[in-house]
Amino acid sequence: MSTSFKAMLVEESAPKTYTRSIVERTIDDLPPGKLLVRVRYSSLNYKDALSAIGNKGVTRNYPHTPGIDAAGEVVECSDASFSPGDEVVLTGFDLGMNTPGGYGQYVRVPSTWALKVPAGLTSRECMIIGTAGFTAGLSVLRLINLVKPEDGEILVTGATGGVGSVAVAILGKLGYTVVAATGKASEAAFLKSLGATEVIDRAAVLAGQERPILKERWAGVIDCVGGDTLATALKATRYGGVVTCCGLVGSPDLNVNVFPFILRGVRLIGIDSVECPLKPRHKVWDKLAAEWKPPQLEALTTECGLSELDDKIAAILKGGLRGRTLVNLDK
């Protein structure tokens, strides 16, 4: 099949020098796979930005098309897992990392990477949620199994980002008292509109970080930052509390003692959305399509086309975006 399509292509034009352009590719350029999808929407995640600037920890070989999220219609499926015209959502696995991803109008992947768009969501809404929202959903699922709304405050760090903003919206809808931490004081009204009860400066989370343990405050924490923010939040978590960890924008290092764990029984739970098995993957997407569906999806979203992505990539790397950035492949 020689159909041509638009895609972002990141190339290593010189050693450690990377350029991005929108090019014409053909379906014959795609790798083998049982499932061919016409992509309508993708989204921008921090990992996409790293791939787009040549981070070899995310993408080993260039030229490459980033985009760890994709949603659209099945064109063909050689193992009959899907039928032509089925609307599917793709997140995680190797999509957009070393397999050409959602910043191209077509992708070809293993059929086991795809899920049918659940009833209650459109393809567009799936990509507003995307990997970030799915990660937020996994975090919420692990937290609410152990912490109830009446147990106390839930801290969400990096709250204006993709994971944080969706987590605030889901927890607020479920009746939790959400404290949103951000370095952007101007976004307080936005976070409260999503469901935050209180908005605090991220510096407040770090107060007392030099101490071995802090006064108990948080019944639970959804941490999207890592580093000192995660370490300090652990020290302030209440007895039996739960802290989920899914980010490293602050730092991949965690300098913390054992006191929160052996004195208060705090549980630290890592969240991985990339290799998440299909059963919990289905469960979270079904909840995101129903009782967890944030009513503020549009308010969370800025939409752009492929040609507008460069500025968005620069902004997300500087922490300058809020909510979710939807990429319309037909725009």
How does the overall form come out from the CA principal axes? globular
Total number of distinct structural domains: 2
Fraction in beta strands: 25-35%
Q: Output the CATH homologous superfamily of the largest domain.
A: Medium-chain alcohol dehydrogenases, catalytic domain
Average pLDDT across residues? 96
Q: Tally the helices: what do you get?
A: 9
Secondary-structure element sequence? EEEHEEEEHEHEHEHEHEHEHEHE
Low-confidence stretches: none
- The first-to-last residue Cα distance is 24 Å
The level-1 CATH class of the largest domain: Alpha Beta
Largest sheet: 7 strands, mixed
How many DSSP-defined strands?
Answer: 15
Q: Structural class of the secondary elements?
A: alpha/beta
Radius of gyration: 20 Å
- Briefly note the CATH topology name of the largest domain: Quinone Oxidoreductase, Chain A, domain 1
Fraction of residues in H or I helices = 25-40%
CATH architecture field of the largest domain: Alpha-Beta Complex
Folded structure, characterized:
- With 331 residues, this protein is an alpha/beta fold.
- It folds into 2 domains: 4-117 and 300-328, Quinone Oxidoreductase, Chain A, domain 1 (Alpha-Beta Complex), CATH 3.90.180.10; 131-270, NAD(P)-binding Rossmann-like Domain (Rossmann fold).
- 27% of the residues lie in helices and 29% in strands.
- The protein is built from 9 helices and 15 strands.
- It has helices at residues 46-52, 123-144, 162-173, 188-194, 202-206, 227-235, 259-264, 278-288, 309-317; strands spanning 4-14, 17-26, 35-44, 69-77, 87-91, 106-109, 114-116, 153-156, 177-182, 198-201, 218-223, 237-245, 267-270, 301-305, 324-328.
- The strands form 3 sheets. Strands 3, 4, 5, 6, 7, 14 and 15 form a 7-stranded mixed beta sheet that branches. The chain has a 6-stranded parallel beta sheet with strand order 10-9-8-11-12-13, sandwiched between helices.
- Helix 1 crosses helix 9 and helix 2 (123-144) packs across helix 3.
- The longest helix has 22 residues, at 123-144.
- It is globular, with a radius of gyration of 20 Å.
- It starts with a strand and ends with a strand.
- The mean pLDDT is 96.
